[in-house]
Amino acid sequence: MIKPLFWDNNQLYIVDQTLLPIEYKRIEIKSHLDMANAIKRLAIRGAPALGIAAAAGLVLGLKPFIDSGSRLFFEKLDEISTLLNSTRPTAINLSWALKRMKSVAESMNHKPVPDIWNKIYQEALTIHQEDIEMCQVIGRHGQSIIPEKANILTHCNTGGLATGGLGTALGVIITAHQLGKDIHVYVDETRPLLQGARLTAWELSEEKVPYTLICDNMAAYIMATRKIDAVIVGADRIAANGDAANKIGTYGLAILADYHEVPFYVVAPSSTIDPSVSSGKEIVIEERSGLEVREIFGVKIAPEDCPAISPAFDVTPNGLITGIITEKVVFRTPYNFL
Questions:
Q1: Angle between helices 70-85 and 47-62 (to 10 degrees)
Q2: What CATH number should be reported for the domain holding residue 85?
Q3: Does the first or last residue of the chain, that is N or C, have fewer Cβ atoms within 10 Å of its Cβ?
Q4: pLDDT, tens only, 180-218
């Protein structure tokens, strides 16, 4: 199983995903500032993995204050949580994990600070372990929508690199392959940062799942000329009405799937559902640097002064989503998560 983040002798490491698949490099994360930087530059990414990373980053950030008084410790808890929470505004799992960590700490505010720190350290490990188990359950739940022989189209990366376990959408696909189903995957490259080409293709190669890499603008042609049995994607935030924010380009795929009468499934843990957001119109979409569009791995592909925008996500309306697969159940339209 691919691990994007792991502890070794009480030291925290991540796999730098900006270097894959050319180089597999582990880097040590020594502080919350290291973690915030890693999250911002996408060295670690994927909604569930960001929740795990944020919890671990909070633990590291508070470690220097174990011997401080309770007041300073909780001040730093708020400060570090706020910093980590600001790194990626769209992915709800990040703020979900931080809220959970803060709640555990506050429930022990009458205890000695070292005991509080040890408790939140254990909570971070629990969040990670729960995600591993959640991926396994999601993988099993997803088998109800995958036939014994299937061509599947996916977008971005939703495997082990994006979670603590086997993955969400990609976990469903890999589980199907492990169960002996005849699976072939069409992998969108996922511009502008190529998470499909760099990460998903690499993971499928590692798991020996048959796949074909396609450019994003080939998806309509593939749906029109191949028998695509399902489009399966992840999500970074799901509104109360079932609208789902995911990597930019997902909305377009959903429209194409609807036109070609291909089932369109979203796969995510229940922690990705945000009932405080009534619809996708309220989801904050992260805007990244236009440099990501003008360059690929530092190589200029457009005029240097070319205006460019890079929204990291788009929102797929609930009416285009056939089902939402979670560790609890496969939800079907109409969605109501209030």
A1: 150
A2: 1.20.120.420
A3: C
A4: 999 999 999 999 999 999 999 999 999 999 999 999 999
